[in-house]
Amino acid sequence: MEQSALPPVTLRELDQLAGRASTVIARLRDRLYAPGTEKRLELQFNVRRAAEMVGRSEKLIRDAEADGRLPEPEKDPDTGRRTGYSLADVNRMRQVFGTLPHRAPSDPAMVLAIQNFKGGVGKSTTVCHLAQYLALKGYRVCVIDCDSQASTTSMFGLNPDVDVDEEEDTLYPFFRHGGPPDLSYALRATYWPNIALIPANLGLYDAEYEFAARMAREQAFVLDRLRAGIETIKDRFDVILLDPPPALGMLSLSVLRAANALVIPAPPNNIDFGSTAHFLKMLGATLNELAQAGGARDYSFVKILATKMNDTKSAHVAIKRMMDAVFPMDMLLSVQKDSAEIDNATANLSTVYELTGAATRTETHKRCRAYLDAVGREIEVLIRKTWPSHHAQLRKEGVL
Ligand SMILES: Nc1ncnc2c1ncn2[C@@H]1O[C@H](COP(=O)(O)OP(=O)(O)OP(=O)(O)O)[C@@H](O)[C@H]1O
Ligand SMILES: [Mg+2]
């Protein structure tokens, strides 16, 4: 038999390839973060912006600083000017003025999955930006990275291979036989004052196999394990965001089962929309099966979010128009547009909300921020509609 003109690639060579890839990651991270430093939130707000965020006037803030209800603002030792307020400072103001938007203890915590079995549709991007949008508003947010690829974990400043122990820090121990009784062990604070993260890393993928092996005998236990875990921590949060892997596996099913609302990111192009249509079909069948496995699952809302939308591509515009016509009630009105700003931020393992300085004064940034805010606002209202204690205020705002 004639031999290939190419020599075979050996396992050893593949190992070397993986090793080199890790080196690239390590170098990229070294470039992004100075050695030994951790990712920090650099956002500073001036008093006018702080007043807008708090929902009280600048004068009331200054009065509270003068009479000691709020600490003296920090000043630059050289110029004597205020250095601005951090998000933690703004939240302290919200607390003093009673404008924190938390749900009442009697309102259900929102467990929102950003779900589509298709890869690369913007699930993790949406999770990270939505988490930060909500955190800027003062909500208590928990992000659960359910994807062993760990993009969201990386965006929150952790190196999944180095900073996350698969035996201790991810969902994995909780999914194992005889695992911990609740999920508190996995919660970690992030550099965002009101975002907690349950990180992921590659080890989480083992849960897929183990769950699949246990499905035959312990179906209900397996499918409901994530939901049961979230029950043990949800009192501490207003919103819990789930970032599932791009596949119809056991983890994705657990996410569907744990969530009480879904947002489905769907880029308006033929291939991705084809997959989304397929996802919706499978969703119906899967939910039926899950219902038979014990207890039907209702969602507070299920919405499709057009992602990576490019207005200058006629195909995108046409497909988006079709989506609006076919699902008039199911589409979010706001759109997550394709933006170089998101790409650039991601390349620096950051979100658009984390950018500071000159980058935030460009037109591209402002535009991108405006539509990310619009998506966030629309989802925020949907979430608040599920909280009876917010209804009076929503009526006042004219959205209920
Ligand atoms: N609106 C956007 N504009 C530009 N780039 C985007 C946008 N949304 C996502 N991207 C880019 O597309 C890539 C995939 O996005 P993301 O990781 O959020 O998708 P995903 O659905 O979570 O993928 P996976 O299925 O692999 O988990 C990323 O590089 C991200 O920066
Ligand atoms: Mg992802």
3D architecture notes:
By secondary structure, this protein is an alpha/beta fold. It has two domains: 47-97, no CATH class; 110-396, P-loop containing nucleotide triphosphate hydrolases (Rossmann fold, 3-Layer(aba) Sandwich). 46% of the residues lie in helices and 9% in strands. It has 14 helices and eight strands. Strands 3-4-2-5-1-6-7-8 form an eight-stranded mixed sheet, sandwiched between helices. The model has no long low-confidence stretch (mean pLDDT 91). The structure holds adenosine-5'-triphosphate and magnesium ion. Magnesium ion (MG) binds next to helix 5.
CATH class of the largest domain: Alpha Beta
- Number of self-contained structural domains: 2
- Beta strands, count: 8
Main beta sheet: 8 strands, mixed
- Label the overall shape: globular
Mean pLDDT: 91
Q: If you consult CATH, what is the topology of the largest domain?
A: Rossmann fold
Task: Tell me the Rg in angstroms.
Answer: 23 Å
CATH architecture of the largest domain: 3-Layer(aba) Sandwich
Low-confidence stretches: none
**What is the CA–CA distance across the termini?**
75 Å
Q: What multimeric state do the chains show?
A: single chain
The ordered string of helix (H) and strand (E) elements is HHHHEHEHHEEHEHEHEHEHHH
Strand order of the largest sheet: 3-4-2-5-1-6-7-8
Provide the CATH superfamily of the largest domain: P-loop containing nucleotide triphosphate hydrolases
The unique ligands bound to this protein are: adenosine-5'-triphosphate, magnesium ion
Proportion in helices: 40-55%
Question: What is the overall number of helices?
Answer: 14
Helix vs. strand class: alpha/beta
Strand content: 5-15%
